[in-house]
Write a structure and sequence with these properties.
- It is a single chain.
- This protein is mainly beta.
- It contains no helices and eleven strands.
- The strands form two sheets. Strands 2, 4, 5, 6, 9, 10 and 11 form a seven-stranded mixed β-sheet that branches. The protein has a four-stranded antiparallel β-sheet with strand order 1-3-8-7, with no helix packed on it.
- The termini are far apart.
């Protein structure tokens, strides 16, 4: 069974960089033709796709976040990481990692709340 788990600080100060890690078990982040994605949901708003990494390491980002977003991975630990720079209170959200298979997210982490506040 594929399981994902987000980890990282729950509070980040404005202008700093948000960094979250997704630990994957039950599947390899380098295998098959899946994508490993980050999404978020701000309070009172819909789900927003932020970006993804393919199994070959190619990254894809939302145009609206591309200048501030970076996704990387550690294949030795089967983890992938989100970094979002220059955060503002508008980046406050529940952040999710997920596996994207055949263009749909089929496995999700439980989500982690990140608040941007001084």
């Amino acid at each position: 069974q594929v399981q994902l788990r987000e980890s990282g600080p729950g509070l980040v100060k404005p202008s700093q960089t948000l960094s979250l890690t997704c630990t994957v078990s039950g599947a390899s982040i380098t295998a098959n033709y899946d994508f490993w994605s980050w999404l978020r949901q701000p309070p009172g708003k819909g789900l927003e796709w932020m970006g993804a990494m393919a199994t070959d390491g190619t990254t894809y980002y939302s145009p609206s976040l591309k200048s501030r977003t970076s996704i990387s991975r550690d294949t030795s630990t089967n983890q992938f990481t989100l970094q979002l720079s220059s955060v503002t209170p508008e980046d406050t959200a529940v952040y999710y990692c997920a596996r994207t298979h055949s263009w749909a997210e089929d496995y999700w982490g439980q989500g982690t709340q990140v608040t941007v506040s001084s």
